[in-house]
Every structure is written in C-alpha cells, then in structure tokens.
Amino acid sequence: MTNKFKRVFMSLAAVSLAAVTLSGCSNPEMSNAAPPESSKTSESTKKVEVNEAAAAALPQAVRDRGTLTVTMSQSSPPLHFMAEDGTTTIGVDPEIAVALGKTLGLETTVVSGPFDGIIPGIAAGKFDMAISQMSPSVERRKVLDFVDYYQSGSGIGVAPGNPQGLEIDNLCGKRVGVLKGSFQDLKRLPALSEACTSGGKEAIQAMTYPDMQAPNLALTAGRIDAVYIDGPTLGYAIKQGGQIELLGEKDLSPVSIGFKKDAGLETAIKLGMESLVESGAYKEILDKWGVGSGAITDFAFNKEQ
C-alpha cells in the first residue's frame, strides 16, 4: 500500500460515523457532528452558467429559498471522499452536485455521511437530494424518485495473483466484503449466494462494512477472500497502490440522483444535467477523475432496472 493510499484512508477513517438501525435498507441517521462541505469550486464547475429553463422548472419553494443541500457517503474515491484536510468532500459526485446547483441558479452545500443514512435524511427533510452512486432499486423507488446521471458496474477484487483461484461468478463459501446497504449488499451478492446454494454449494459469507475502503483493507489483511464494490472505487484503490487485483466487473447499470418522492424536482434535474452535457462540464468532471467511460446521455426518470 502506498503512502498516498494510506493518507486517503486515514482521512476517511478519522471521520466519526453514527449507526442507528432502521427498517427497509437498514439506514441509520447521519452523524450529528458538523458536516463536512465541498466548498472548493473546481475548474470544471467555474464555467457553468444558469440554465433558465432548468431553473424555471424548479418548485417555487426551492427557487424562493435559493439553496440546495446534497448528501452523499464519505468514502468511495474517486466518486466522493474526504480530502486530506479532513473537512472537504471531493470527487466526481460533489463536483456534479455543485455544477448542477449552479445550472439551477442555486447555492449548493454538500453534506457527507454514512451511506445508509441517506434515505432517512432525505425523508426527514435534512437534504434535498442524494448524488451518491445510488442504484434506483424497486425498494428505493417506493420512497424516493430518481433521475439517472451516470452508469457504473460492480468490481470484484481479490488478493494479488488470485491465490484461491476464485472466479467472478463462483464465490461460493467465500467471505466477501460489501458496503452496508449498497446494491451489492442488498441484491447482487444475495443473488450470487442463492445460485451457490441452489447448486448444492456453500453460501457466500457476506461481510458488511460502513464504507468502501474498509473491505479493501480487510482483503489486504487476509480477513476476507474478496471484495464486491463499485467498480470505479475498486479501480481507484488499485491505482493508488492497494494490494488488490481486479478479478472482473459485473452488472453495468445506471446510478441516479435521488430525492423525496413527489418533490417535483425531476424536470429541473434532467434539464440541468442536459445543460452540463452541452457546456462540456459533465464530461470534463468525469474525465478529470478518470471515469469518463461512465458518461450517459439519457437522464431518465424512475427508469425500471
């Protein structure tokens, strides 16, 4: 593990996470501590201008307020993670959040916390929306509305050299690390495990963690056999010197901006994202963080997955 990778992890690990078990997707509340904010405007967002059609599509109450609070998890580099200053959230998602806010004519605040605190936080009115690589599953669409903004697959990582000879579709009986409350935790890994048991093999042992860095480190320490997390995050960890080998990628699908059901934000978000494509800001942000292959052009509303 390189010193750079260690410093990124230490910045993430220094943040205190609150965990309160709730029903549904097991979503705890965000920490009551003062939230970190993405306050540094990047070069990618400086050129963004207000799109009048997108701004006009906002609900009147939001236009009158003039602000936008966007939440995301804290530890999924290069998508969203803490800078070394320990207070600034950086990465793809905070830059998209700030750019989207600018095109809507709103002052944007980015608040980061545990992934499984996102849904209850939006339901409680703490946040206007989430830009956190969230898959619009059937269960989540019962409480949130979604507009697609990116596409991402799941990466499966193993120890260098794959000493156990694992296969991407056969992890039966193995200890596999996932982010608690993620699509991999709630849907993808259970489906793989069911295929194992249906074929008379041992079930996969799901090991859940509060952030995506923790399973990577558990793998390097030999406490688990594989990780199953967002592909861009796994790729970034490998580039930063993490002692992990990419076994393969699965399940490429859209991820979405989530907001309270029937909040009426979908048209404004869709027009705003289209405006970012036209200005070039969308591509510039993705390319800056090395994830340009995930760009989309169809910012669909509540699309079936």
Task: Please render the helix and strand layout as text.
Blueprint: H1 3-13, H2 43-46, H3 52-56, H4 60-65, E1 67-73, E2 75-76, E3 80-82, E4 89-90, H5 92-103, E5 107-113, H6 118-123, E6 129-134, E7 144-158, E8 175-179, H7 183-198, E9 205-209, H8 213-220, E10 226-230, H9 231-239, E11 245-260, H10 266-279, H11 281-288
Parallel strand pairs: 1-5, 1-6, 8-9, 8-10
Antiparallel strand pairs: 2-3, 3-4, 6-11, 7-10, 7-11
The biggest beta sheet is recorded as: 8 strands, mixed
Radius of gyration: 19 Å
CATH superfamily of the largest domain: Periplasmic binding protein-like II
**Total domain modules:** 2
Specify the CATH class of the largest domain.
Answer: Alpha Beta
Supply the number of helical segments: 11
Which secondary-structure class do the elements indicate? alpha/beta
Helical content (DSSP H or I, runs of 4+): 25-40%
Strand fraction equals 15-25%
Helices and strands, in order, run as: HHHHEEEEHEHEEEHEHEHEHH
CATH fold category name of the largest domain: D-Maltodextrin-Binding Protein, domain 2
Strand order of the biggest β-sheet: 5-1-6-11-7-10-8-9
Euclidean distance between termini CA atoms = 36 Å
Overall 3D geometry?
Answer: globular
User: How many β strands by DSSP?
Assistant: 11
Low-confidence stretches: 1-41
Considering the chains and any ligands shown, give keywords for the structure.
D-Maltodextrin-Binding Protein, domain 2; 305 residues; 2 domains; alpha/beta; globular; three-stranded antiparallel β-sheet; eight-stranded mixed β-sheet
